[in-house]
Amino acid sequence: MTATPTPKEADWESAPNLIEGAMTLELTPETCDLDYWLSAVAQGTLRGLVRGHTAGARIPEYMRREGPLRSALISELGFRSVAEEKATRAITVLVDTAPTIPTMEFYATQLIDEARHARVFRDHIVDLGVPQDELARTIEEFSGDDVRKVLEPLEEFTQPLREQGDFMGGVVTLTVLVEGVLAPAAELSERKWRVLDPAAAQIERGAGIDEIRHLTVGSSVVRTHLRDHPEDTGRLADLIRRGRDLWGSVPVLEMLGRREALFQRGLEEHADAVGDYEIWPGRRLVDTTAPERIEQALTWSSDMQDQRMEYMGLTAAMAAGG
Fold first, then answer.
1. Contact 22, 309 (CB under 8 A)
2. What is the domain class of 28-320 according to CATH?
């Protein structure tokens, strides 16, 4: 029996990076249905992975020792694990209210993806030396304040949409205001850990391949809806504006600043392990600063958001609303 070839966007070796894929690919619920997920993801992207990374990916011993580098990664993965857990629970509403079988199947697979992400992020914290029975306490210690100040206000913002069974409002919130905002930070994470913790970088790589699919299919769902129901454009644009205002009011930059400051201290301690590795073309990781890395992630976010707004047909409505 001949195995089905893994599509390029889901292939571990040939898939584009998260930002490039989210800005250039076009995928739909019809092409990313349950059969696609079983063959392209379960038997493709995830084939041979152990706890989210390849069996040969190493975790350097210095990552298991207390210090700023380990603290930075635990803080990041703890926050991400809770974010993915909350996304998993929120997607149950999209599965329940999906208007077509293809969209129902797609969001059922995204639910599994997000639950898997939460699991492998938690697993890696354990692999960094945190005992399993201390995992919850450790995540609270390193990330609890950020969860309460950043994620819980967003959860409160989306609660009325879930209570109303507003499928399209939920899709817009998830695609634009959650994954669209957090994806650039995930791309930065994969790049900065690539030589310092190859296993962590591969976990981010696998999650990023999934996020390409989530962002592009979600954008396609919104685009199709607005073509069929242009009268809903203003409502969804207003939802995005209010969501962006919320993001502007929570301490995301403060959180990133603390995390990158820890990473910077660890980077300086382990500069020999990084060598001449370039985090992006022409820029060595050891030469970067915390503000520079944050600025790059914000640039990626802005560029990706602009492209996605245009694709979904929301650019004019967003501009008209200020």
1. no
2. mainly alpha
